Amino acid sequence: MTRWIGLVLCVLLAMPVAAPAAPAEKVVIAQGVDPTTLDIMNQQETPASVVGRHIFEMLVERDQNLKLVPALAAELPKLVSPQVWEVKLRRGVKFHNGEDFTSESVKFSLERAKDSKMRASSNFRPIDRVEIVDPYTVRVHTSKPWPIFAVMMNAPQTAMYPPKAYAGKESAEISKNPIGTGPYKFVRWSKDEEIVLEANPSYWRGAARIKSVVFRPIPDDAVRVAALQNGEVDVAVNIPPHLAAIIDKHPKIFLSTAPSIRTIQLMFYTHQYDKDNKLVGSYQGPSADKRIRQAIASAIDVDEIIKGVLDGKGQRVATMLPSFHFGYDPSLKPPKQDLARTKKLLAEAGFPSGLELTVHGPQGRYVRDKEVLEAVAGQLTKAGFKVTVRTYEFVNYLNNMVYVHRAGPVWLIGWGQGSLDAEGIYVPLFRSGNLLSNTTPTSTGWWTRRRRSWTTRSAWSSTTASTSCGWTTRRPYLSTSRSTSTGPAAGSTGSRAATS
User: Fold this and answer.
1) pTM surpassing 0.90?
2) pLDDT tens digit string along 308-328?
3) 6-12+261-471: CATH homologous superfamily?
């Protein structure tokens, strides 16, 4: 049985890069929003991950060519039996508080990451336990074969934590005092104002040239661009296309583009879960009816949104898997707008005179997110819906709506996952019982069947055609890259930059 559970609107956006001279002693980065937490394991959002990657490190990382390479691991993990991965660790690495990085840290960190209380635990559910072989060797046992283990060890939620400092600590305490092995140490966090980091003088790769990094949340696009132009910030993310042209004309700003793996999509509630991700029952709203979900999909012209709201700086895709991902199928095509079909489906569902619908989303988190939702509402209204758009500050949106399953019937979210594998997309968003899933409880069975066939691309794509149809955005790389935090380029040029 096929189920329409997401509407993906896919937009590939530009990444502007800018340049009035900034002192190498300090770099200010303007993000659209503040993180929800600095306990990097207990989140699933880019703003927190960007900050976290300056403080924490994982066992592996991707290099400038996106190749997986060792980080805190001395070499890439090795599969020593179908359900056991062995990891050799780098010696001589210390946490910011002076603790040594050893096997104890890996055991503490990975077993915490899979704890169901962690917001990203669904990504690491296959981990069973971590066996300490010696101070610098561990074996990770999985509950079943997990072919993408090494790739998932690059996820920010697998950051290595100091076991002595964090033993028995709650997430809120860790968020107030993040301690990693990375190039920058935490100084302070003034909520909704700034997060201040300072270079780690004992960093195992050598101290960063930039001595201080400051993250400032600036939700308004125009204010963020003005801050960049005025020299108040040195890096600004999520610059919308209509303002990128202004930056491009700036005499001291350089503009470039880069691809991304993020998708932006409208999600549907078909079932209701409680705050503990336990099934309550079928969703008592219009999106529980497949005909309504299909009617919404048929009503939206994504290409028109790309042209009118995003100045044409985008590309629509058929599913939530951009071409970088294992599981991508270029033969799948997105559905076209069909208003006659929308009206027919609405009538069949018992709403021949139209249907009232509320669409929820964040404001200031993604490129022109509010404007995109308003454009969607306009198209749905023309198709016979009576739409109310409600947007929220991002932290409030996640904590009080998305994470507690109160964002129905239709909600907007962006999603990109560094594993570049379909597992990192569909498990967190659609596997029942997970933090972000609001779909049928039979999704668990669907996932099990598909994972058994992980070696074939067709095993993934055969279901995605019916679960998504629509848009993705380009994710900014600059503010999360190694060069921003430690590289010679960042220290020597002092360039100001913008990303969208």
Assistant:
1) no
2) 998 888 788 888 888 888 888
3) Dipeptide-binding Protein; Domain 3 (3.10.105.10)
